[in-house]
Amino acid sequence: MPIRLEKINWYPDDWKLRSYFIRFIRANNRCEWCGAENYKPHPITKSKVILTTAHIYDYIGKPHQLLNLVALCQKCHNGYDAIRRARGRVERRRNKRQLLLF
User: Fold this and answer.
1) Is the distance from CB of 14 to CB of 53 less than 8 angstroms?
2) Helix (H) or strand (E) holding 62
3) Number of domains in the chain
4) Which residues pair with 71 in a beta bridge?
5) pLDDT by residue (tens digit) across 29-71?
6) Which of 14, 29, 78, 100 is at a distance of 20 to 30 A from 37, taking alpha carbons?
7) Per DSSP, which regions of 3-100 are E strands?
8) DSSP 3-state assignment of 37?
9) 14: Cβ–Cβ under 8 A, 6 or more apart, which residues?
10) Hey, what long-range contacts does 3-12 have (CB within 8 A, 24 or more apart)?
11) Cα 47 from Cα 66, distance rounded (Å)
12) The model scores a pTM over 0.70
């Protein structure tokens, strides 16, 4: 997944190396959750798999440590992030309502 511009400073300078290590060395070019192979059709969705490096917990002291990173296909990454995205939408709506009240 692309890095959002507002989070660019959140990533360490060696992020590309960490991401490469997670996807190609540790995960052996496969999704660590479902086993889908990178650059091949996904067994369920049939779309081409592009592995990404995901943070399991963003809000810990050192979110970029290797034990907190996992190589995921789009299906697994989007499924995992769906809960957080939904919470973010609720939070943004709540904040917008509070701004409108003042």
Assistant:
1) no
2) none
3) 1
4) 53
5) 999 999 999 999 999 999 999 999 999 987 788 889 999 999 9
6) 14
7) 52-55, 69-72
8) strand
9) none
10) 11/64, 12/64
11) 28
12) yes
Matching residue, tokens 């049939």: 46
In this structure, the number of other CB atoms found within 10 A of the CB of residue 10 comes to 13
d(C-alpha 102, C-alpha 57), whole Å? 34
Count of all residues that appear for the chain in the document? 102
**Tokens of residue 12, six digits:** 């360490």
Q: Over the stretch 16-33, which tens digit does the pLDDT of each residue have?
A: 999 999 999 999 999 999
Q: pLDDT category, 101, cuts 50, 70, 90?
A: low
- Average pLDDT of the residues in 77-93: 84
Domain, as residue range, for 72: 5-101
* Tokens (6 digits) for 33: 């959750």
Residues 7, 12, 13, 14, CA torsion sign: negative
Q: Are 58 and 68 spatial neighbours (Cβ–Cβ below 8 Å)? A: no
